[in-house]
Design goal:
Keywords: ATP-binding, Nucleotide-binding, Transport. This is ABC-2 type transport system ATP-binding protein. The protein is an alpha/beta fold. 34% of the residues lie in helices and 27% in strands. The protein binds adenosine-5'-triphosphate. Adenosine-5'-triphosphate binds next to strand 2 and helix 1.
């Protein structure tokens, strides 16, 4: 398996706050990885640096061996914490936008997922509920044939019944050689699809483990372990 993401001494300082301290991490292709940690532990900061939205203060992040930039945007599909889609457009226009923007976008895949979620092509984003708008953005992001997907809280606003559907859509639609990095607080909803988990604490790597190791060697669910490790 090849390494798709590498963080070397990755550090981000915002004024008096250090959001990430010398993070060293190496993620292999073909895995679904949960990026977990309490509020303020650095998850979004890491995802933003992978996507080149903010630059490291020290150290570096490499995607398939290269620094974030135009070339990495071709292989990384990113779902931000808050949707940037223009609310005045319709679903079909959002699909066209992604299709024009990304060579790896699969329109058929997007329309298939939208139909299964009962989302009409003609509907305006402004008239949708927040959760439905989030589903549209996730569908667009997952309809790319990317090498690395970075999903920042993908199911936070989605009802529990739709969560299962969305998670199965995620696993059924991604190429087996791709990697998915998912930041979430909804651990019990998501842990069944994860291969590995990263626990961040105060901007540092507290643990990086396979889910099988947590289940079989420690005899716990990831959710239970998280609650024990980060007990307030
Ligand atoms: N633009 C910024 N300016 C100043 N401080 C920031 C900025 N962005 C993040 N931080 C700080 O960096 C730390 C990490 O924030 P980050 O958003 O990465 O955490 P998180 O793990 O994603 O949290 P949550 O689970 O609440 O979304 C926090 O202390 C936060 O206040």
């Amino acid at each position: 398996m090849s390494v798709i993401l590498e963080c070397k001494n990755l550090t981000k300082v915002f004024g008096p706050k250090t959001a990430l301290y010398g993070l060293n991490l190496s993620l292999e292709s073909g895995r679904i990885i949960g990026l977990l940690g309490p509020n303020g532990s650095g998850k979004t900061t890491l995802i933003k640096m992978i996507n080149g939205l903010i630059s490291p203060t020290e150290g570096e992040v490499l995607i398939d061996g290269i620094k974030p930039g135009v070339d990495t945007k071709k292989i990384v599909s990113y779902l931000p914490e808050r949707s940037y889609l223009n609310r005045h457009i319709r679903v079909a226009q959002a699909v066209e936008l992604f299709s024009d923007f990304y060579e790896d976008f699969d329109r058929g895949r997007a329309y298939d997922m939208l139909a299964r979620l009962h989302i009409e092509r003609n509907e305006k984003l402004s008239t949708m509920s927040k959760g439905t708008r989030e589903k549209v953005h996730l569908v667009l992001v997952m309809s790319r044939r990317a090498r690395l997907y970075c999903l920042d809280e993908p199911i936070a606003g989605v009802d529990p019944a739709a969560r299962d559907f969305i998670l199965s859509t995620i696993i059924n639609n991604y190429d087996e050689n791709a990697t998915i990095l998912i930041s979430t607080h909804l651990i019990s909803d998501i842990e069944n699809i994860l291969d590995e988990v990263i626990f961040l604490e105060y901007g540092q790597l507290r643990m990086f483990s396979s889910v099988d190791d947590i289940r079989f060697n420690q005899g716990k669910s990831v959710d239970t372990l998280f609650r024990e490790v980060f007990k307030c």
